[in-house]
Design brief:
The chain is of the alpha/beta class and about 270 residues long. The chain has two domains: about 150 residues, NAD(P)-binding Rossmann-like Domain (Rossmann fold, 3-Layer(aba) Sandwich); about 110 residues, 2-Layer Sandwich (Dihydrodipicolinate Reductase, domain 2), CATH 3.30.360. It is built from seven helices and twelve strands. The strands form two sheets. A seven-stranded parallel beta sheet has the order 3-2-1-4-5-6-12, with helices on both faces. Helix 1 links the parallel strand 1 and strand 2. Helix 3 runs parallel beside helix 4 and helix 5 runs parallel beside helix 6. It is elongated, with a radius of gyration of 20 Å. Pfam families: DapB_C (PF05173), DapB_N (PF01113). One of its GO terms (molecular function) is NAD binding. Belongs to the DapB family. Its EC number is 1.17.1.8.
């Protein structure tokens, strides 16, 4: 019988965290050993509204959690401000982090990768856990070889803190690997209202929409002579991210470096 993967979820009361707790609890070879929350220290998760029947102690202090429990993987779905700190605590305790927060710089990723390799631990940072979104990024990179004029429109709920989204930035980065930097639009264009043309990433324009009722949506629009191509992905609910989280946990156990983006573990 396979040993169960012992998992801690950070940020259990968030929209993504709730789905992750449910996924871990329902996956036969996973075991939810604790959650790390900003409050409810000492309580059991089952005592908190929305988690009836899910047995796991609640910690505020992540270091204390790792010291007291045997943990294989941390699933961190908190906020950009905490992502790096939580990864460093995980590494220091021999725990493999799977992180869904954004806001990591290139230097953050390089430094965290060095720590992961020094410790011999697998780690995954994923701007987006939806398998369809990963395919959208891969298809966009392929299309950009032939249609280099491209703009990205991403839409999210109005509680999202960062803009553009990590997915939009990651998409632009992947496209830039096959596309030479170029300015788009009329060379003498002006913005009558500042920001009308969106963010500029090597000449690509990225536009962010924030509205209630949205979850996570992105379209990548390519323009060519007499034609356009649109590649679009929609997450209708946050359950759409859970197969990717599960894949990331299983993959983190098999590697000894940090991988940024699920596209590197999806063939």
């Amino acid at each position: 019988m396979m040993n169960k993967v012992k998992i801690v979820v950070a940020g259990p009361r968030g929209n993504m965290g709730k789905e992750a707790v449910k996924m871990v609890s329902e996956t036969e070879h996973f075991s939810l050993v604790a959650v790390v929350d900003s409050k409810h220290e000492g309580m059991n998760l089952s005592e908190i509204e929305g988690f009836h029947g899910i047995d796991a102690p609640v910690y505020i202090d992540m270091q204390k959690c790792f010291e007291e429990l045997d943990v294989d993987v941390l699933i961190d779905l908190t906020a950009p401000a905490f992502g790096r700190k939580h990864m460093e605590i995980a590494f220091a305790n021999g725990v493999r982090p799977v992180v869904g927060t954004t806001g990591f710089t290139d230097s953050d990723i390089s430094e965290l990768r060095a720590i992961a390799e020094e410790k011999g631990l697998g780690a995954i940072i994923a701007p987006n856990f939806a398998i369809g979104a990963i395919l959208m990024m891969k298809f966009s990179q392929l299309a950009a070889k032939y249609l280099p004029d491209v703009e990205i429109i991403e839409q999210h709920h109005d509680r999202k803190l960062d803009a553009p989204s990590g997915t939009a930035i990651k998409t632009a980065q992947l496209i830039s690997e096959v596309r030479a930097e170029k300015a788009q639009g009329h060379p003498n264009e002006t913005e009558e209202l500042q920001g009308a043309r969106g963010a500029d990433f090597e000449g690509m324009r990225i536009h962010s929409v924030r509205l209630p009722g949205r979850v996570a949506h992105q379209e990548v629009i390519f323009g060519g002579e007499g034609q356009t191509l649109t590649i679009r992905h929609d997450s209708i609910n946050r359950a759409s991210f859970m197969p990717g989280v599960k894949l990331a946990v299983e993959s983190a156990l098999k590697i000894d470096t940090l991988v940024y983006g699920l596209e590197h573990i999806i063939e």
